[in-house]
């Protein structure tokens, strides 16, 4: 089956990201495909490129990047939810006159319409929220 | 699916949070509007604290957050007219249908599974 995940919990504040990552590895281990993870609401903080958790805790940002590198899973972040929370890629940072950026590939800022598209194009869209 | 289903459609958006205390309601309504703009038939279910979103007279308030009342008024423009609330939830706040900004249908908790079954996709906020 072709899956997509919707993550709405902030990393380290709620269990949502941890559970979503575990669900992702379980479905991939079963031979399913994970097309995309869509980050919305406080889930957008998962894209923070400067995340620096203690070494004895799971590095959630790196775990998402590994999903993309190893399985080609797209990492899409709702742009409206991201911008108001200070999550900007290089292009948005320059557009808003900000020094530095907080989001970089493989995470991509995209519209909420992508989430609606995903719901129609994959077999299962599973939500992880606090 | 039963032939006398409460409502059927492409997407059911469940709203469980009151306005202002968090951005759940605003971001859930945004998702509903985008889906409708993409041509999907959308139903809203206001559940638990979410029923407060329907209460008349919501304003921006001193914290400067945007009021969600204008967004609710826009629902009809996006053809989102299938609105439900859980009866017990509304009653638990001492509200009646007369206190609501929009016309919505009250359903008992026991009718929720039927609503879920009638939609291809469900997003919960």
Automatic annotation (TrEMBL), chain A:
Keywords: Cytoplasm, Transferase
UniProt record similarity statement: Belongs to the DsrE/TusD family.
Gene Ontology terms for molecular function: sulfur carrier activity; sulfurtransferase activity
Keyword Transcription regulation: no
Keyword Protein biosynthesis: no
GO cellular component, one term: sulfurtransferase complex
Biological source species: Billgrantia desiderata
Annotated protein name in UniProt: Sulfurtransferase complex subunit TusD
């Amino acid at each position: 089956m072709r899956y997509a995940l919707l993550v709405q919990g902030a990393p380290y504040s709620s269990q949502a990201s941890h559970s979503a990552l575990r669900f992702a590895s379980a479905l991939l281990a079963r031979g399913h495909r994970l097309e995309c993870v869509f980050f919305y609401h406080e889930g957008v903080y998962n894209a923070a490129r400067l995340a620096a958790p203690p070494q004895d805790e799971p590095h959630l940002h790196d775990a998402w990047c590994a999903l993309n590198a190893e399985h080609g899973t797209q990492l899409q972040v709702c742009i409206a939810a991201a911008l108001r929370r200070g999550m900007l890629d290089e292009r948005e940072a320059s557009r808003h006159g900000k020094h530095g950026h907080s989001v970089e590939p493989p995470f991509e800022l995209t519209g909420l319409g992508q989430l609606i598209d995903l719901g129609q194009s994959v077999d299962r869209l599973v939500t992880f929220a606090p | 699916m039963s032939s006398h289903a409460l409502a059927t459609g492409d997407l059911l958006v469940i709203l469980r949070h009151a306005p202002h205390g968090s951005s759940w309601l605003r971001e859930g309504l945004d998702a509903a509007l985008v889906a409708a703009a993409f041509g999907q038939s959308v139903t809203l279910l206001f559940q638990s604290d979410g029923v407060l979103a329907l209460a008349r007279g919501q304003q921006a308030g001193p914290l400067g957050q945007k009021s969600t009342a204008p967004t609710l008024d826009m629902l009809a423009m996006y053809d989102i007219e299938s609105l439900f609330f859980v009866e017990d939830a509304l009653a638990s706040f001492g509200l009646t249908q007369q206190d609501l900004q929009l016309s919505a249908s009250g359903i008992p908790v026991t009718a929720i599974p039927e609503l879920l079954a009638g939609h291809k996709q469900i997003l919960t906020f």
